[in-house]
Amino acid sequence: MTANEPATGYDLDRASLPRMRISLLGAESSGKSSYVLGMFAALVRGQEQHQYSLSTANHDVGFAMLEEMDELCAGKPPRGTDEPKTHEFTLRGGLPGNGRTGGVQGGVVAIDLTDFRGGAIREKVVEDSDTARYYELLVESDSIFVVLDSSHFREPVTPSRMQAVAEATWAYRIGDRIGWAIGEREAHGLPAPSITVLLTKWDFLDDGEGVAVRGLGQVYADVKALLPRVFGVGLWQYVFTVSIGEFSDADGNPRQAPINLSGVEKPLFFATGCYLANVSEWLQGQRGRLEADRAAAAERLRKLTRWPEFIRQHVLRGWIEQRRDDLKAKNDKLAALNLRALNVSEHEKILRGLAS
Ligand SMILES: Nc1nc2c(ncn2[C@@H]2O[C@H](COP(=O)(O)OP(=O)(O)OP(=O)(O)O)[C@@H](O)[C@H]2O)c(=O)[nH]1
Ligand SMILES: [Mg+2]
After folding, report:
1. DSSP assignment of 33-95
2. Is 356 helix (H, G, I), strand (E, B) or coil?
3. Residue ranges in the chain modelled with pLDDT below 50
4. Of ligand 1's atoms, which has the minimum distance to the CA of residue 246?
């Protein structure tokens, strides 16, 4: 579905929701497309205890994704991504409450998540190519998911391995691009994107008996050394370990395995929580402007009502009514904005809590 087509089914309210963009950056076969499938499946079928779910703007697309996820179990790897694919998701959630709508899910954020082919990151930018579009989208991204294949971290990233791991993961190139995107956003008055580092195929760091070969603490230090720009001061960033099932062996060959989703929802919760914090700030600014507007309207009315009764009744009546209506409209607008701001900040708090 393109942005201009009408939304259908459960997504009737998608157009009215705050809309965020997420871009996935990662080397070829790092597990980007599989992650999107696993994350979607977890949030559709429900696996953890939380009040959020995901839907696609087009239901057929959603069913096809679930089918693709099931095919993975049969050892059929996802088709390599040969052109950028933007998934149009809606995150829905319910807030606790006693009223009729308490706990009922409603739209929270419309998410455009773009999955690029891994090769795009290292190619020269040619006009009108998908690489060029890639970088445009990167600047528009409220959140960037950096996808790193965990198999590179089975061994410590010692100084002698550093260059090889950076080349295999494209970490330096990704760091450069993120630095560039932050600068471009700043120049356009946009907040820095949140950075969500995904250590995919985390099952590779498991020895098969539930004991980790290396723990996240150790790998975290390696990731930080590879992506210093991402861990710069003032950026929201978080490292998540995810796995969707042992669908490939240590040499990268596909194999049959049951779906075993682990940690796949948290990165999305983190990214949307960060995004809602920015929406909240924007709404505060709007509230300041509306309050000033409302105060000016109240003052205009007050000036008219100071005239003697006779003049108010016979000369100013129409004007007074008009200004009362104006004040009421402004009060209603402010009340609606306050309700929206409350809703956004509640979801922000819950989502950030679920992510940590
Ligand atoms: N063991 C294991 N293998 C995985 C996991 N996720 C994905 N894989 C395998 O990794 C391979 C690559 O996955 P993709 O999702 O196609 O990777 P990609 O980054 O989208 O690749 P491109 O689109 O070519 O850039 C596939 O063979 C998957 O089966 C995982 O959690 N564990
Ligand atoms: Mg792919």
Report:
1. HHHHHHHHHHHHH--SSSSEEEEESSHHHHHHHHHHHHHHHTT-PPPP--S-EEEEEEEEE--
2. coil
3. 1-11
4. 1
CA 5/CA 11 separation, integer angstroms: 12
The pLDDT of residue 209 is 61
For ligand 1, mutation pick of 34, 169, 256, 262 (most atoms within 8 Å of CB): 34
Predicted local confidence at residue 5, as pLDDT: 45
With tokens 């709508």, the residue in question is 101
Ligand 1 atom nearest to 79, measured from its CA: 16
| Among 170, 206, 247, 262, residue to substitute to test ligand 1 (most atoms within 8 Å of Cβ) | 247
pLDDT in tens, 223-266: 999 998 888 777 899 999 999 998 888 777 878 888 889 999 99
Q: What CA–CA distance (Å, rounded) separates 260 from 206?
A: 13
159, 175, 176 from 225: Cα distances, Å: 10, 11, 14
Closest CA to 30 of 248, 214, 177, 233: 248
CA 89 to CA 99: how far, in whole Å? 27
